[in-house]
Design a protein that fits this description.
The chain folds into two domains: 111 residues, no CATH class; 85 residues, Nonspecific Lipid-transfer Protein, Chain A. Helices cover 52% and strands 8% of the residues. It is built from nine helices and four strands. A four-stranded mixed beta sheet has the order 2-1-3-4. It is globular, with a radius of gyration of 18 Å.
Length: 219
Amino acid sequence: MAFHHIDRDHLVDALEAAGPDAPTLCEGWRTRHLAAHVVLREGSPLESASMGLSFLRGRAERELEDLAERSADAEGWAELLARLAAGPRGVSPVAWGGDKANLAELVIHTEDVRRGDGPAAPLDREPEHLDALFDQLRLAARLYYRRSDVGIVLVVPGGRRAKVKAPRDGAGTVVIRGSVVDLFLHASGRGAAADVEITGDPADVAALAATHPVRESDG
């Protein structure tokens, strides 16, 4: 079963509730920029190519800014959300990528909107949905945490656990506990908005915080 369609609905709902000019967790982006990014990722060859070709990024950024600007009023915003709700077209690689190409992207960006102005209550997702997301996190976490020397164990309290990265250069291992969504937010550099608990040697916890900051109350 694919779950990304559910999270597309969550993202559209969050954007509709927030409006086009609300803050997000993505630095420099208002909600209209984030929505434009997702739409262009799914439908613009330039946006897709720029992810791997740095010389195209300037043009892709201008395309994003143009779409975001045209979506600042009520009519443009409604049109942008309609495009987002419709999803990618069949010619887009994202269209046939299923959960692998879309699930984490949509979940994270939904929280970028929902937590852009502070904490938000968790959304309800079925256990199978959360398992699919944890599977993606387990595979992506080594890349997300590559800049840190510490080993990483991810734990969902009362649920799954995975050692996703071994320590290097004499560092120890830390355990990060939280919901799978909060673990994904921390791993992807959004730790200041994530409700996680990190345990381990204080030096290792501090070393991880240098690359993946957390909420001040957690630090």
